[in-house]
Amino acid sequence: MTAGAVPTRTGGPTDLAGLRRLAVATLDANWEHDHTVPSRTLYPHQWSWDSAFIAVGWAHVRPERAWQELTSLFRAQWADGRVPHIVFNPALRVGAYFPGPELWRSADVEGTPTMDTSGLVQPPVHALAALLAYRRAPDPAGLAALRRLYPALVAQQRYLAERRDVAGDGLVCVVHPWESGLDNSPAWDEPMAAVDADAAVMRAYRRHDTAHADAAHRPTDLDYARYLAIVAAYRDHGYADRDLADGHPFLVECPLFNAAFGAAEHALAEIAALLGVDPAAHRVRADRVTEALVRRLYDPGTGTFQPRDLRTDRLVGARTVLGLAPLILPDLPARHVDALVAEARSPRFGVARWMDRPLPTHDRTAPDFEALRYWRGPSWLNIGWLVRRGLLTHGRPELAAGLRRSMIDLVAGAGCHEYFHPDTGAGLGSPAFGWTAALLLDLLAD
């Protein structure tokens, strides 16, 4: 079966073996000597949280590639501990991706690696991915790889805790919507509206994404103009974090990012124990993150978690799937778990009694819900996968099983697309997408 083929469905049982072959073929086709590109067309470089999710899938079929994936990413770690969200492939022509190295200028910053990277980060799901990769293939080679990665994973967490706790409240602040992973989520509309940028700035650039995907499915030119304005502000300040509160245009505490930050400490505690290191400090930090997240980002009026805009010190009103992400925290209090399960099963997310409908990324009942546009409504496997892990963690196996079926059915019907229409299941964005294939392998293995 080729990477673009889709197993035939005739109303009977899904061809699970065919789906597995499709997933492996997709990952093989996207393999690039020591890492996996998310997509050969839309995303030809290495992306941070993509590599983490992809490593989980590789562990099921080629464990050595799982460790290569993570190792190659962490070779690009900056001296301050940040793991950049893009690592550029020098073999590609200038202009193969926008925004490319010429915009980021990472080489101008002291303490950066020899390869070109961005200056932003993404949700720190890497420690969890490393732990899961080892669990999937618990052999001496995997343990040795964990031992090599552990100091880098600790440094990643230290960077976030020491450099990005802008409010001093125990939570990490994202300085750009791209750092959240959910680039154009409605959660960012309010804080983004205050960013001074003119859509006309985009006339000086050629967007790469709309050459390979329908512009109606992507962020707008005004979104991109604001994205570039934020990048320029951070870059021109040397990507320094010490003065962020004094004027950086975008400062938000994100529920998903901070849930990943806390989950990473839980994962590091398990990794430390495997390596014979005292895990106590990781457990203490994990507890502190959960306490801060509940205190700062939980809205009892809506029963969900919401981002906090540090520029206004207010919670953002949009009800998006970001609010469900804290389910991945094993120490989330039971009453908050119950509230998030109720939110997930409500008409806003429309996953019904057994959660057997695709999980959208935004409130289905909201006037600005868009079923086709990137993170403003479509279903993504990585988010569903995270929420499913949270449901299993908190003893909701039947709901987790329904969500698993819905994700498998999306790929069975449309292939390994980047994202999917949350009602019709139509494939959107890039075909042959890396983390969709990788997380499908993980779902099938269960």
Automatic annotation (TrEMBL):
Record carries keyword Cell membrane: no
Record InterPro entries: 6-hairpin_glycosidase_sf (IPR008928), 6hp_glycosidase-like_sf (IPR012341), Glycoside_hydrolase_63 (IPR004888), MGH1-like_GH (IPR054491)
Lineage summary: Bacteria, Bacillati, Actinomycetota, Actinomycetes, Micromonosporales
One GO molecular-function entry: Glc3Man9GlcNAc2 oligosaccharide glucosidase activity
Keywords attached to this entry: Glycosidase, Hydrolase
Protein family according to the UniProt entry: Belongs to the glycosyl hydrolase 63 family.
Name assigned to this protein: Mannosylglycerate hydrolase MGH1-like glycoside hydrolase domain-containing protein
Organism of this sequence: Micromonospora lupini str. Lupac 08
Signal peptide boundaries: none
Transmembrane region(s): none
GO terms for biological process, alphabetical: oligosaccharide metabolic process; protein N-linked glycosylation
Mannosylglycerate hydrolase MGH1-like glycoside hydrolase domain location: 43-436
One matching Pfam family: MGH1-like_GH
